[in-house]
Design goal:
Blueprint: H1 2-23, E1 39-43, E2 46-51, E3 53-57, E4 65-66, E5 76-82, E6 90-95, E7 100-103, E8 111-112, E9 124-128, E10 131-135, E11 140-143, E12 151-152, E13 165-171, E14 175-182, E15 185-189, E16 197-199
Length: about 210
């Protein structure tokens, strides 16, 4: 009798769990309309998306406002935020024209901060505390002063690594570990981009019966 009751209870729990899973849904936001979203970032409850310009929502996507005053041309391909845990977060954007922009007023105005990056087109951005990393076909550059100056941080990376994305783990302000995805494998840096070492990525294959 107890085993039968346990079976019934387990079955009902299974039905409840699967019904909850089936009810999990995605709902399209009310805009931005007719653009391809290629980048996203957030400051507190404010959401920023990049595509043909930058748009901002302060109500979880119910309404959107264009906030790209100062961004002149190019398609936005990356967004990130530095100093996110402070009272003065900085929003950064890059575009396919090779420009990097900074906003200190949550997108209301933008200034270019790509001095020293001439001839380079940013493919991805990442931040750790107040440090900003930009990935290019040619390698990685880093700024510690919000884009006023940039330094090459590609030591240990292969020639023309074609940086496609970053991920940062650990204490983002003190001792982050930065991972860079490239066309030649994954690399990591534990000294804020000063040196990079190759990571071995294993593919796990499981076989069912």
């Amino acid at each position: 009798m107890k085993s039968a009751s346990f079976f019934i209870a387990s079955f009902l729990l299974f039905l409840f769990a699967t019904s909850q899973e089936a009810n999990a849904q995605w709902a399209q936001t009310n805009g931005p309309h007719n653009i391809t979203i290629t980048a996203m970032a957030s400051i507190g409850t404010d959401l920023f998306v990049g595509g043909d310009g930058v748009s901002r929502s302060t109500n979880n996507g119910v309404t959107w406002t264009s906030v790209d005053n100062g961004i002149t041309d190019g398609f936005i391909n990356a967004l990130t935020v530095t100093d996110s845990n402070t009272l003065s977060p900085m929003l950064f954007a890059s575009n396919t024209a090779g420009d990097v922009y900074r906003s200190s007023d949550e997108g209301q105005s933008w200034v270019t901060v790509d001095s020293g990056l001439s001839g380079l087109v940013t493919q991805t951005l990442a931040s750790s505390g107040s440090d900003l990393y930009a990935g290019f076909y040619q390698g990685v550059y880093r700024t510690t002063d919000h884009g006023t100056s940039w330094s090459n941080a590609s030591n240990g990376l292969p020639s023309n690594p074609d940086i496609s994305n970053f991920a940062i783990t650990g204490d983002l302000s003190a001792s982050p570990v930065i991972f860079a995805g490239t066309s030649k494998g994954m690399f990591q840096s534990s000294d804020k981009g000063m040196t990079w070492t190759a990571e071995t990525v294993y593919r796990i294959i499981t076989f069912g019966r």
